[in-house]
Amino acid sequence: MKQDKKLHIKTWGCQMNVYDSGRMADVVAPLGYAPSDEAEGADMVILNTCHIREKATDKLFSELGRLRVMQEEKAAKGERMIVAVAGCVAQAEGAEIQRRAPYVDMIFGPQTYHQLPEMIARVTRETGGVLNTEFPAEPKFDALPRQRASGVSAFLSVQEGCDKFCTYCVVPYTRGVEYSRSPEAIIAEAENLVAGGAREITLLGQNVNAFHGEGKDGALWKLGRLFYRLAEIPNLKRLRYMTSHPGDMDDELIAAHRDLPMLMPFLHLPVQSGSDAILEAMNRKHKADDYRRLIEKLRAARPDIAVSSDFIVGFPGETNADFAATIQLVRDIGFAQAFSFKYSRRPGTPAAAMIPQIAEDVKDARLQELQGLLRDQQTAFNQSLVGKTIQVLFDDDGRHEGQIFGRSPFMQSAYIDAPAAARPRIVGQELDVTITEARPNSLKGELVIQKDVA
Ligand code: SAH
Ligand code: SF4
Ligand code: F3S
Fold first, then answer.
1. pTM to 2 decimals?
2. Sites in the chain below the pLDDT cut of 50
């Protein structure tokens, strides 16, 4: 296959977007597009966008301004740069993008990128842009080609969309209603990934533990059952999943954590707030104590499980007491890692109209306090591994001279010192590493058994 055209994709947002960007590259590869790290000189640039917080949209328009200059430079040479906006901003604000940036050639949402070849044909034939933000009847997964090379650690989308309608969140509007792929299609894609060298697969979904795929036998598979089946794939060493909702952690999934060592002891389970009043206003459908009990159950099933979360501070109506309840929850649980955000008012979501909205300086102060505590917990967790021997799956991209990187079972970045010549024998292997040093965001260690690899 001749690949003489340069494709640059820039990705913002969640892992689903990372997955989608990879699939977009797969879809256009047969048209001769090869991935490139730079926008400069590219024949096609796709900005795969995120709409979750206000800043995400601002970033898009500043990036588009830069691309326009490159597009004109190319046009002056008689060449063309196709500029496309994909993802959740495209879905939510497609018409606005067309208006503000008429030089954008294609605008399409997360559910239509399998139609890229037709869209490209149209923009090269005709003048004027394409806006394609339908939710088509034929699911894109049936129309996508096989995933190409994916590396040691691969993503696999099993579920998309969300029906939860948390009052602050745009995802149900940008990604649409919940949709689960069939177990057979997922198993086939997983086998294909492993055949291509993947040793770790992370199942993805906006609400991945709401997965309920219909099997050929008519049975409804939940995520737990899917894990028991995927664990049978030879040469696959690790399974993970994200992102989950506390309301959908069922007993079968918890049992899978107990029974399957290869289901990694790390769970990203966003709680958002520790205050019941705020959780209710957010429409999270659970209380803070439900979350505490759930973590207890998970720890009983898999004692070494490390827990991660997302938090929003400054949600409308959040009082000092509400915020204190969040701090208390964080102290009670002890997180290995977490993300926290200032509430961002998203047009069209119910929370945008709630009162009172919280002042920016209050949000700032709360965020700082929460992040300080979370950082301390993360550092303490990393520190607790010093002197211990853990398994690291090396998935290094080869960018660090003299070091090889991988991941601990708990999702920490972990590295060893090793010469570049050792890389082919180490990358792709899950090896015992004794941790010698902990940093806030990574672990350093030494290989235990060196006879096969060093
Ligand atoms: N489906 C996942 C993730 C959704 S987006 C879930 O249910 O948790 C990732 C995170 O962004 C959310 O967990 C939330 O913490 C944050 N987020 C979403 N909307 C937000 C908003 N309007 N303002 C601030 N943070 C937001
Ligand atoms: Fe958004 Fe809530 Fe759905 Fe997560 S569960 S994607 S936060 S609506
Ligand atoms: Fe962002 Fe869309 Fe993901 S809004 S977080 S890219 S689902």
1. 0.93
2. 454
